[in-house]
Design goal:
Blueprint lengths: L17 H11 L4 E5 L5 H9 L4 E6 L1 H10 L3 E5 L12 H4 L2 E6 L9 H12 L5 E4 L3 H4 L43
Parallel strand pairs: 1-2, 1-4, 2-3, 4-5
């Protein structure tokens, strides 16, 4: 699996409702900070920043994607983190307590999503009000019965929207029974 540089000429916006949903959740919870885990080049975050310039935006990624964000998006704070190994983010506790976390179109790119899920869990434990996670539904891209690996070569896995839940990762991030909630 190679590093995913979020650079295509494709004008398709995948899952366009996720960020407006996260913003509405933040607003309803009285929060004004969005922490975007795996922000890529932050195109969807930029759209939100244009609509709500008074909010604070924290994009988390690494490599070329993060360099691009730092050079092209003045609105955000850009935090370097490898989502397959980072356990703690250098974000002030006061910002975390004003936040909602969004992680969209990311988990399917990770060989080991456990550390990213632990990272999100930690942000929730430190006071983030909610986490909005979203992955592509395989049936809309390839169909349930499509044999073989995901059509997108940068995806490690894809799930269907109606697929039965499978054990994934525990609160610790190690393989094991999936948890619907984790103790604080």
């Amino acid at each position: 699996m190679e590093y995913f540089a979020d650079e295509t000429d494709d004008t398709t916006v995948w899952q366009p409702d996720v960020y407006p949903y996260a913003a509405a959740r933040a607003e309803g919870l009285g929060r004004d900070v969005l922490i975007d885990i795996g922000c890529g080049r932050a195109g969807k975050l930029a759209t939100l920043a244009a609509a709500r310039p008074e909010w604070t935006y924290v994009g988390v990624d690494f490599g070329e994607n993060l360099r691009w964000c730092r050079e092209n998006h003045p609105f955000g704070r850009w935090v370097e983190a490898d989502l397959e190994s980072t356990r703690v983010l250098p974000i002030a506790p006061a910002l975390i307590r004003r936040s909602v976390v969004v992680c969209s179109d990311v988990v399917e790119h990770l060989l080991n999503p456990g550390p990213a899920l632990v990272l999100i869990r930690r942000l929730l434990a430190e006071g983030s009000a909610a986490a909005v996670l979203s992955t592509p539904a395989r049936e809309f891209r390839s169909g349930y019965d499509a044999p073989g690996p995901p059509r997108n070569p940068s995806h490690v896995r894809e799930s269907g929207s109606k697929a039965p839940p499978r054990p994934a990762f525990s609160c610790t991030g190690r393989p094991g029974p999936a948890a619907t909630s984790c103790p604080r």
